[in-house]
Amino acid sequence: MNIEIDNNSGFCFGVVKAIETAESELKKNKTLYCLGDIVHNDAEVKRLENKGLITISHEEFRKLKNTKILLRAHGEPPETYEIAKKNNIELIDASCPIVLNLQKKIDKAYIDFSSVHGQIIIFGKEGHAEVIGLLGHTENKGIVISNEKDLKKIDFSKPINIFSQTTKSRSSYHIIIEKIKERMIRETGNDEINFIINDSTCRAVSNRDIFLKDFAKKHNIIIFVSGKKSSNGKVLYEVCRKQNKRSYFVSETYELKKEWFKKEDSVGICGATSTPTWLMQKMKSAIKNINL
Ligand code: SF4
């Protein structure tokens, strides 16, 4: 079998920065708390936990005092910073600069839109860490939509300012924007209502799907490596699946199945922005060792 690892897959710079920050802190101290999974990949979390990283929940965070805590790339709502200040917690902020920039834009939009009774819409996954952080910048008054059904949450007679979670696909964002425009006209007969569209998908993700399409077409079989919790992983896997019916989503080597492969296959290994390169290499070795 010919096996190729996609050069464009693997950690985005936001995740690289968060992991480098954690590793450099762990060189100075034996342990370090991290608020939530540092990356949506269990294998990488386990590797860092073996070095001393301790993942804590937001509930546990509220009870801690006088310590140091790492904030991961997804970003946090303002409340997290307030709690840290109150409890004398030093924050090592590894929030991705792109997410921080988006939070600032939402902050400003929320203030501007309050005076016109407008709505801040976030196209993203309800409950996702980044979305929770973004919502915090609207005092949790923003409206999260993830599909067409959620459009019922919107009052189409009022101004709308829409942002997307950074990891959503650009095509799905454009589709939902068009649906909003249609509903606006249908329900109000007016297409002149203030509708501000912000292009907030991350290029580290949106550009990858273009490369990934070609990569998925180039091989007979695609092994897509990602943590099950990764939103970006789900999006990129769908890109592969649309191009190549023999695409499989795996998180660990033991999930590989012998019957997927044929001797003459050309195998492509790729992954999400949260997939470590070492894990894709481990998959490659495991596939090589399959006795066909
Ligand atoms: S996907 Fe983009 S926004 Fe999200 S952490 Fe990576 S670089 Fe930052």
CATH superfamily of the largest domain: 4-hydroxy-3-methylbut-2-enyl diphosphate reductase, catalytic domain
CATH topology of the largest domain: Cobalt-precorrin-4 Transmethylase, domain 1
Report the span from N to C terminus.
10 Å
Spell out the helices and strands N to C: EHEHEHEHEHEHEEHEHEHEEH
* Annotation field: number of helices: 10
**Beta-strand content bin:** 15-25%
Number of domain modules:
3
Q: Strand sequence of the main sheet, in spatial order?
A: 1-12-10-11
Rg calculated over all Cα atoms: 21 Å
Structural class: alpha/beta
Unique bound compounds: iron/sulfur cluster
Form type: flat
User: Would you count the extended β strands for me?
Assistant: 12
Task: Provide structural commentary.
With 292 residues, this protein is an alpha/beta fold. It folds into three domains: 94 residues, Cobalt-precorrin-4 Transmethylase, domain 1 (3-Layer(aba) Sandwich); 84 residues, Rossmann fold, CATH 3.40.50.11270; 98 residues, 4-hydroxy-3-methylbut-2-enyl diphosphate reductase, catalytic domain (Cobalt-precorrin-4 Transmethylase, domain 1, 3-Layer(aba) Sandwich), CATH 3.40.1010. 43% of the residues lie in helices and 17% in strands. The protein has ten helices and twelve strands. The chain has a four-stranded parallel beta sheet, sandwiched between helices. A four-stranded parallel beta sheet has the order 3-2-4-5, with helices on both faces. A four-stranded parallel beta sheet has the order 7-6-8-9, with helices on both faces. β6, α6 and β7 form a beta-alpha-beta unit. α8 runs parallel beside α9. The longest helix has 19 residues. The termini are close together. The mean pLDDT is 94. Bound molecules: iron/sulfur cluster. Iron/sulfur cluster (SF4) binds next to α1, α5 and α8.
